[in-house]
Amino acid sequence: MSAFSDLLALSDLLRSEETHDDEHQRKQAFVTPGSIASPALPKGGIIDQGFPLIKKDPKAIWDEDEVGSDAEDEEDSDDRKRPKHEILYKQDVMTEDVFLGLGDKDPSTAHCDAMVVKIVFPGHKLREIDLDVKAQKLVAQSSRLKLSTYLPYPVKHKEGKAKWDPKTDTLIVTLPIVRDDDW
């Protein structure tokens, strides 16, 4: 109870003399948790205290803070730019797939065998680039650029191959895609 009386004493010092008598009378009254009335809540149950209200999607499965992002495990102080990159798909086809139509492959990504990630590092040499590939994530970085991205399909990261094209300063990473029958 002494902390409460200290707060009231501090409040008395900060208020003007004309409101001093009203505060003194309020201090005399006995205060319990039940005597503190909460304000009536508006529709939606949110009290507007001058903060911008965030509308929640009623059909949303997860809240924004529950969903991870690409930058979730990165440092906030990392101000390196993201290099230009593209993800392409590679498909092994035979003559019966192309000319006779006897194969069961179609041009969709569901029938692709590998993923090719091309990352442009302008003005870099191969020795300046660090590459780390996991089953679902690729991190390629240098002292000036950093690409950290999740891959659209799980890959066989230990069987992947990387090649450097010095003419275009492009790192080309080929990763075999893991299919359901490969698990």
TrEMBL record:
Region Disordered, residue ranges: 17-45, 62-85
Record-level GO cellular component terms: cytoplasm
Biased composition (Basic and acidic residues): 17-26
Biased composition (Acidic residues): 63-77
GO BP: axonemal dynein complex assembly
Domain annotation PIH1D1/2/3 CS-like: ranges: 82-178
Record-annotated membrane-spanning stretches: none
Domain of life the protein comes from: Eukaryota
One annotated GO molecular function: dynein intermediate chain binding
Coiled-coil blocks: none
Protein family according to the UniProt entry: Belongs to the PIH1 family.
Protein name (record): PIH1D1/2/3 CS-like domain-containing protein
Organism: Achlya hypogyna (Oomycete)
